[in-house]
Write a structure and sequence with these properties.
Length: 340
């Protein structure tokens, strides 16, 4: 009888300890909101709250049709046997996303009755939103750098986030969910799988490539050039594998369509550049200036910010064991290089 009684006593003490912790945090609300050690607790609460918020938004706020029908038209063409990217079009124009987008949204096409069940699609994206929140909160739990009260404004209070995920059904949420999953893998030192899912995110939307320079730096820092090559091959081979049906049909059409760096965007959809006239936004010189500024910024980071004190950029090409001094990547340094 004593082992059973002892087990009950420990269980009771455990429940009492959790209860005391929760009551203590409730009495000291400031600590709960400001101490990063409580990120997991507040993040879990916000995820539960977001279930209700997402349901309310879907039921009460009108859906905005922008790209969903075009997505469905584009993948329907592929499902009907068209693999030439130059012949795949939707309401808003030609298909301009890589092959991973086609496969994932083909799955959505079947789940949502050929794209006609918008309400079901919204709930699928709501689940994707909650998954993304969990992945993002997990990153903050690992780093313990941000006061938890910030997360309320990041999710529950953000009209833009709910609009993108729940009301417009863009492909950005799919790409970002996969990207944050890959970053979680990198933080756990699973570099091969992290590179695999990073490449998968790129195959959904090309803008994920903006993080490629930071990832390359991390691979060189962690492995050196020789041992980083297999990770880079994972990224490249996945792109080839996913795109193979389209590359066999029309390789030039696929590459120019899905990775078109000269694509012209409509002024009506921009958010960050509303401060300039539309004529300037549409001018080719403005696009060239932005690209040039981005490349210059990358070069400045390469030669001034990324190399550590007493270490040249070229030393990253060496095997890490042969570098002086040796350096271990931390979670915060990984995130800093990826996002800055």
């Amino acid at each position: 009888m004593s082992p059973v009684g002892g087990g009950r006593k420990r269980g009771t003490c455990g429940c009492r300890s959790v209860g005391d912790t929760v009551r203590g945090l409730w009495r000291n609300k400031q600590q709960l909101l400001l101490d990063p050690q409580h990120t997991a607790l507040l993040g879990a609460f916000l995820c539960v709250a977001e279930v209700g918020v997402a349901h309310w938004v879907i039921q009460r706020v009108p859906y905005t049709e922008i790209d969903w029908k075009a997505y469905m038209d584009e993948v329907e063409g592929v499902l009907n046997g068209t693999y030439d990217y130059t012949k795949l079009k939707g309401e808003t124009g030609p298909l301009v996303y890589p092959a991973g987008f086609v496969y994932i949204f083909s799955f959505f096409y079947y789940l949502t009755e050929r794209g006609s069940n918008i309400r079901l699609a919204q709930y699928i994206f709501a689940a994707l939103y909650l998954l993304t929140l969990i992945l993002v909160f997990r990153i903050y739990v690992i780093t313990k750098k941000v006061p938890p009260y910030v997360f309320f404004f990041m999710c529950c209070a953000s009209y833009r986030v709910h609009s993108i995920f729940l009301l417009r059904l863009f492909n950005d949420p799919v790409a970002m969910a996969i990207l944050f999953f890959s970053i979680n893998l990198l933080l756990q030192d699973h570099w091969s799988w992290g590179c695999f899912f990073y490449s998968l995110a790129v195959s959904v939307k090309m803008n994920v490539l903006l993080l490629a320079p930071g990832l390359l730096y991390l691979l060189l820092c962690r492995f050196g050039l020789l041992h980083a090559m297999p990770k880079l091959c994972i990224c490249a081979m996945l792109q080839v594998f996913l795109a193979l049906p389209f590359l066999l049909e029309n390789p030039t059409g696929y590459l120019l369509g899905s990775f078109d760096f000269g694509r012209q965007f409509l002024f009506q959809w921009t958010v960050n550049w509303r401060l300039i006239p539309e004529s300037m936004f549409q001018h080719r010189a403005f696009h060239v200036a932005l690209l040039t500024a981005h490349l210059v910024a990358l070069l400045l980071f390469c030669f001034n910010r990324w190399p550590r004190s007493g270490q040249s950029l070229w030393s990253l090409l060496k095997d890490p064991a042969k570098r002086k001094p040796s350096h271990k990547l931390t979670a915060n340094s990984i995130l800093m290089q990826i996002f800055k």
